[in-house]
Amino acid sequence: MPETLKTPTTTAEVAYYLQSAPMSDAGAYTTALTDIPANVPDLVRALQGVSVHIFWAERYGLHLSEERQKEVQIRPVQPKLARILALDPRPLNCTRDPQTRLVCNCRDFSLLCATFLRSKGIPARARCGFGTYFMPNHYEDHWVVQYWQESTQRWVWLDAQIDDLQHQVLGMAWSTLDMPSGAFITGGQAWHLCRQGKANPEDFGIFEWHGWDFIKGNLFRDLLALNKFEVLPWDMWQALEPAYDQATQEQINWFDQVAEVTRHDTPDFAHVKALFSDHPEVHASAEWVK
Fold first, then answer.
1. Predicted local distance difference test score (pLDDT) of residue 5
2. What is d(CA 14, CA 12) in angstroms, rounded to the nearest whole number?
3. Residue among 175, 187, 184 at smallest CA distance from 212
4. What are phi and psi of 287, to 5 degrees?
5. How far is CA 227 from each of CA 38, 71, 124, rounded to the nearest angstrom?
6. How far is Cα 32 from Cα 207, in angstroms, rounded to an integer?
7. CA-based end-to-end distance of the chain
8. DSSP readout, 131-179?
9. What is the DSSP annotation of 98-120?
10. Which residues of the chain fall below pLDDT 50?
């Protein structure tokens, strides 16, 4: 397992992650969030009751049409909520039949969960990296959530995707509502582990996609997520260039710097913000929130 790295959480950091950003703003559907339970376990259960993961659909008896599969291309929360309520107009705390749930992936579960948590006054942020609990000896491309638990003064790791069925199928012996250290590896942690020779880059990815460039993609997706701009898992933009085997030493040093700032379980908030604001080349398209 990687080292657990923490920096003190500031009041400014907590306040920042309490507020939504364009990608996570519920907009016209903000009032619909009032029906969501305020306690975390029931809130997560409500989210699972309106969403279904595209790769798990058949486990729930679904055979998704090409049109339904396109729902994973919806980036912002507002049109996601519009689609959920178009499929079934009942309040969001009402569990839907699987065929009328929004088709999602792990990024969508994490983004929606962060929005739901913030609506209840709980600071939250999506994180991009790799899960260790899907396949043995493999780091699976994945997104989760961290939320600020005031009572314990810590950021709690939460996987909103894993419901009772998935928990059983995966044979998990611990709760995904408060995950142990090392269960999820951030993009920065993955990069650091591989650069230190402590892990094989080929063990990180999904399906036929893996290796250094995949890790680099999640490194920058996590940096954007920490700045509340949650891109799709397959989005490509300037920050992902050049390919690892074509990068200069100066560029490798830059990737190392991003990893050093973001790899912590609780990254230094000021450095995360500065790294983003001082380097516009890492920014993704503002058009993606429309």
1. 57
2. 6
3. 187
4. -65, -20
5. 25, 24, 12
6. 36
7. 39
8. ESSSSTT-EEEEEEEEEEETTTTEEEEE-TT--HHHHHHTT--S-TTSP
9. GGGSEEE-HHHHHHHHHHHHHHT
10. 1-2
- Please tell me the predicted confidence (pLDDT) of residue 1: 44
Which amino acid, 82? A
Residue in the block written with tokens 């591989």: 194
C-alpha span between 128 and 74 (Å, rounded) = 18
| Radius of gyration from C-alpha coordinates of the chain | 18
Lookup: tokens for 265: 């379980």
What sections of the chain are H helices per DSSP? 11-16, 40-48, 66-69, 77-87, 106-119, 164-169, 187-195, 212-226, 249-262, 269-277
Which of these, 81, 68, 106, 78, lies nearest to 221 by C-alpha position? 106
Instruction: Report pLDDT digits (tens) over 63-94.
Output: 999 999 999 999 999 999 999 999 999 999 99
CA distance 123 to 150: 9
